[in-house]
Amino acid sequence: MPVNKSKAAFRTIAELAEELGVATHVLRFWETKFEQIKPMKRSGGRRYYRPDDVNLIKTIKHYLYDERYTIEGVQKLLKEKGLKAILGEEIQKDFFALAPQEQELSGDAREILSHIKDKLKDLRDKLSQALASSAK
After folding, report:
1. What share of the chain is helix, strand, coil (3-state, %, to 5)?
2. Residues 36, 46: Cα–Cα separation, whole Å
3. Distance between CA atoms of 83 and 92, rounded to whole angstroms?
4. Which helix (H) or strand (E) holds 107?
5. Which residues pair with 47 in a beta bridge?
6. Beta pairing partners, 11
7. By C-alpha distance, which of 78, 95, 96 is closest to 87?
8. What are the beta bridge partners of residue 41?
9. Average pLDDT, consecutive stretches of 10 residues, N- to C-terminus, the chain (136 residues)
10. Which helix or strand (DSSP H or E) is residue 48 part of?
């Protein structure tokens, strides 16, 4: 039973496999063969495919099943032409990978963070000493 989701929604491996008409193990196999396929993984290893992942996988399936390319042929095509040339210029940025915008911290927040940083340095030093003495 197809799930009616927005094109911008993330898909589970089962949803994507059903949408494409392939088995879930095929998608997992393609992940090992195409480094460009990088679904987000949550606790327990559950995969969530972003819209760009879905477009890439649909393109890979098209080349493999319709155009009859080999896996090596599609790998070469992706390497030579690049994702932008194959999928178009409108590839979404991975919003999880974007650096957060810097925010000004209040004096209290800076003081707390500085205190935590000092405590962590102390713990690191104590741990290093303990490891050094146990190695003797």
Report:
1. 60, 5, 35
2. 18
3. 11
4. helix 107-135
5. 41
6. 49
7. 78
8. 47
9. 70 94 96 93 88 92 95 93 75 49 71 91 92 81
10. strand 47-49
Report pLDDT for 91. Answer: 54
Give the pLDDT of residue 107.
79
Return the amino acid letter for 122: D
What's the token pair of residue 68?
A: 């009859």
> How many CA atoms are closer than 13 Å to the CA of 131, on its beta-carbon side?
6
Other Cβ atoms less than 10 A from the Cβ of 22: the count is: 17
Assess contact for 12 and 47: CB atoms under 8 A. yes
**Contact present, 4 and 46 (Cβ < 8 Å):** no
Determine if the pTM surpasses 0.70: no
- Please state, in angstroms and rounded to a whole number, the distance separating the CA atoms of residues 129 and 93: 44
